[in-house]
Structures are given as C-alpha cells and as structure tokens.
From TrEMBL:
This is Biopolymer transporter ExbD. It is a single-pass membrane protein; Single-pass type II membrane protein. InterPro entries: ExbD. One of its GO terms (molecular function) is transmembrane transporter activity. It comes from the Bacteria. GO terms for cellular component: plasma membrane. It is found in: Cell membrane. Keywords: Cell membrane, Membrane, Protein transport, Transmembrane, Transmembrane helix, Transport. One of its GO terms (biological process) is protein transport. It holds the Pfam family ExbD. Belongs to the ExbD/TolR family.
C-alpha cells in the first residue's frame, strides 16, 4: 500500500502543470551606480494624471483641470493626450494627429501618464485602468507601425505577438525586433505609478 501511494505521489508530481502568473509587464529604469544631481523638469501640460479613489471612481487631471471620467472613455482621452502634438520648434511632433493644443502634450516623447490609486481601490479596477493606458499606447503604436512598415500587413501588437511566438523563424524574429524597437523609440511608453494613498 505504501509503495502504491508513493508511486501515485511521484506520478502526480511529475505530470502536474504548475501555472505561473505572468504579472504586469513593466520595464524598470536601469540602475545607476553614480546618480547625478540632475533634476528632470516636466512641464505640467505634459502630464496626464489619473487618480482612482476608494470608490473606484476615476478622476483625470490635464490642462490644470480635474474631471471625472468613465473607464470606457479613458483610452480615448489618453490617446487624445498622447497624440496632441502641441509642441513648437524642437518639441514639434511631425507624426502627431491630434488637436495641436498648446496647453496639452508637446509630443510622444514628452507626454507622461501618471496613475495613482487609493489603498482601497479594487484590484479589478486597478488592472482595468492599467489595461486602458497600455491600450492607448498600443493604439498609437499600431498606427505608426502601419505607417512606417506598410508592406508588413500587420500592426504593432500583431508584430509583437509574432515576435514572441517560439515558432517564428530566427531571421523573421530579428527583422521584427528591429522594427518593434524603432516604434518603441518613436512612441515611448512613459507611464508612472505614484505611491498608493
């Protein structure tokens, strides 16, 4: 009996698939051994602040005004902010298709989305807000990938999925890697999470 139980235990240990959560995909800035005393100055117009309170209500602050917003409209507002192109001279954005409002973001590189939430915010709401922000970045990246590489016949998200697919041939993967990195440089994902309140 003990031998059979032992064999069953080994069988279940060997054949069981242990599911691992992938978590949230975030790339942290590189560690700097000798931090310099340079202070990064970000203009207030280049910051799109999202606050989620304990009742899971979303408040967006931009152009010095705070307004409540539904989760369904968050992506549209984030895209409008990122794609504004209100910069002049060196800060001008030649690929932005927005309203070019000088009171809103200058270009893709200067625009920062900041998220803060309350300690009592539901996890489901927190993840849903993050998904909408990432979707806003992907919407612009899709457009720019199609504009930059029309011969591919796919958008940024599809190219990224193909790049991550283990069945993709190595030469195709290298080709996609170069194109994906170019789009990530053109439309950097500058997403900041403030400390929970």
């Amino acid at each position: 009996m003990a031998d059979i139980a032992f064999l069953l235990l080994i069988f279940f240990l060997v054949t069981t698939d242990i599911a691992t959560d992938s978590g949230l995909n975030r790339k942290l800035p590189p560690w700097e051994e000798d931090p310099q005393d340079t202070e990064v100055v970000i203009k207030e117009k280049n910051i799109f602040t999202i606050n989620v309170n304990s009742a899971d209500r979303i408040m967006v602050t931009q152009k010095g005004e705070s307004d409540p917003i539904d989760l369904d409209n968050l992506r549209k507002e984030a895209v409008k902010f990122l794609d504004n192109g209100g910069g002049k001279g060196a800060d001008a954005c030649k690929y932005c298709k927005g309203a070019r409002d000088p009171r809103s973001s200058d270009n893709f590189d200067k625009a920062v989305i900041s998220l803060s939430n309350n300690r009592l915010t539901k996890y489901k709401t927190y993840i849903a807000v993050q998904n909408e922000i990432i979707a806003a970045y992907n919407e612009i990246r899709n457009r720019e990938f199609i504009r930059e590489y029309p011969g591919e016949g796919i958008n940024y998200v599809q190219a990224n999925d193909e790049y991550l697919d283990p069945a993709t041939p190595p030469n195709r993967r290298e080709n996609l890697k170069t194109k994906l990195e170019a789009i990530r440089i053109l439309v950097p994902q500058k997403f900041s999470e403030a400390e929970t309140k």
